[in-house]
Amino acid sequence: MSETVERHEFGAEVGRLLELVVHALYSEREIFLRELVANAADAVDRRRFEALTDTSLAAPAEARLRITPDKEKGTITISDAGIGMSKQELAQHLGTIARSGTLAFAKSLTEAPADDKPSLIGQFGVGFYSAFMVADEVDVTSRRAGSEEAWKWSSDGKGAYTLAPAERADAGTDIVLWMKDDAEEFLDPWRLKSIIRKWADHITIPIVLVENGEETPANEGTALWRKPKSEVTPEQYTEFYRHVAHAFDEPWATLHWRAEGAMEFSALLFIPGEKPFMAVEDTRESRVRLHVRRMFITDQAEMLPNWLRFVQGVVDTEDLPLNVSREMLQSTPVLARIRKAVTNRVMSELKSKAKDAEGYAKFWENFGAALKEGVYDDAEQRSEIAQLLRFRSSSVEGWTSLADYVSRMKEGQEAIYFLAGDDAARLAKSPQIEGFRARGVEVLLLGEPIDAFWPERLGNFDGKPIRSVTQGVADLAKLGEAPAEEGADVAQLLARLKDALKEEVSEVRATDRLVDSAVVLSAPAHGPDLQMQRVMRRAGRSMAGGLPVLEINPRHALIRKLAAEAGTDTALEDKAGLLLDLALVQDGEPPRDPAGFAQKVAAMLA
Hints:
Layout (H helix, E strand, L loop, with lengths): L5 E4 L4 H12 L5 H21 L13 E6 L4 E6 L6 H9 L5 H8 L26 E9 L6 E6 L4 E7 L5 E8 L9 H11 L7 E5 L2 E4 L16 H12 L5 E9 L5 E8 L16 E4 L2 E4 L13 E6 L8 H5 L2 H21 L3 H21 L4 H5 L5 E2 L8 H6 L8 E5 L3 H4 L6 H5 L5 E3 L7 H5 L1 E2 L2 E5 L22 H10 L6 E4 L8 E4 L7 H9 L10 E4 L4 H8 L7 H15 L7 H12 L1
Parallel strand pairs: 2-8, 12-14, 16-17, 16-19, 20-22
Antiparallel strand pairs: 1-6, 2-3, 3-7, 4-5, 4-7, 5-6, 8-9, 10-11, 11-14, 12-13, 15-17, 18-19, 21-22
GO cellular component, one term: cytoplasm
Protein name: Chaperone protein HtpG
Family: Belongs to the heat shock protein 90 family.
């Protein structure tokens, strides 16, 4: 037989290109199995297609892809019942880098009816060579469907290959990988099965692992997202959601559609019914899986923006090649168009669901914080996301929207007012909103860290500016009459308080926005909201904006007493500090010196 062995040099500067494929083109070694499985799937699809016009080429009904690891020999054998390759095709397709039989075949399908075209994978012609990442030598034995001849192609990937006659009972291809010493992990059947489940779980061709002569299924073989919605049961949707999301709950929403026209893709997405064990705040990336012709490519293609990262599922397209690296994938404009279409579809679903206030409330409690990040991050979608926001309010029970707030605005009210803090229930009792409540002005209560940031980015809604009550002091005069009760003369008290607190506040002034409280803090005229300053301090970041303003209520009994004694009270400086600490505590902040504050309060009580 050795006399019939033919030795050939690779074409296309193969040494350099093989080094690129093996060392630079792929980011994970396990990709070799995905590429070889993809090639096998193409071969089977191609045989099925050609059998439509030549029934003698039909594959066996039970045709499947077999993967057989052999630890003793150090080999992995991948066998298919596909179209196979002739001697000439072996030389053309495997002997020349970047010459792809799949690509050539795809071109031949231009005139074929759309329904008859098989879904082809791997149009770059380099995927096969990923085998050399894990193998010292690769043998390919193939018999073309319709032919009695089989041929064996062999190479160590170092510049040459051999071709020799061989034996194979049926049409198809066997690939034998002689594994490298540092690739022994791939001889473990469980490792192989995990790779298949990750990368090729929904290839429609059955894949089996052969161990000790027994075959065990390695993939599900059902691309659920490619089926018509009418053929998928709710139970199948739930099962697939739990598989892809690693969850145990029921999906809150299921989005299943196929886009056709300028771009083609299928999508099956889920919005979870419960928060995941790992909160969405703990990761910033969308993990929607990208498939190309049923083959998993990556879950890091950022198919959705970060603020929709709670969405789970699959997007499968015909318009991309089975790409060889995530880096190349990110740069293609096709993917950008698909991302935009998928984002718009999810937004449409959320707007539709939001019409059911009770059902939407459950979603909002789970994932509302992520949508608020979208208001901050995404200028293009900002106004659309704003319609989906929900809030607690000082005036109504349950959740309310910005549109609902605007519909209830008081005559003459120019702005949408909010108070941001750590807990909406506590904010409802805050002195900050006493003056607004007394004038019948509604205040939105924002109780999450992100609430310190997004209102400034949104700026306005329906033409109404969005303003923090800590910055809206000047608006009160326009919103109604001040409290009727006359306050004390606090001029002397203000002067002494300003002098005592000159290092800690920018101003001390009387206010008519307090009803039941003696003091309150507000932001300086052109400074950031108080809650934003607090959040930044907790994160260890300083923020320019000036010292806060201490406002006192001239009608409160404590302030009346202090004002009456302002000219003679020698302990007023200490009391000034207590007033500032009291204002801090009311806003959920600790006093400047907790131990000292406690001692002074105890002494006064005694």
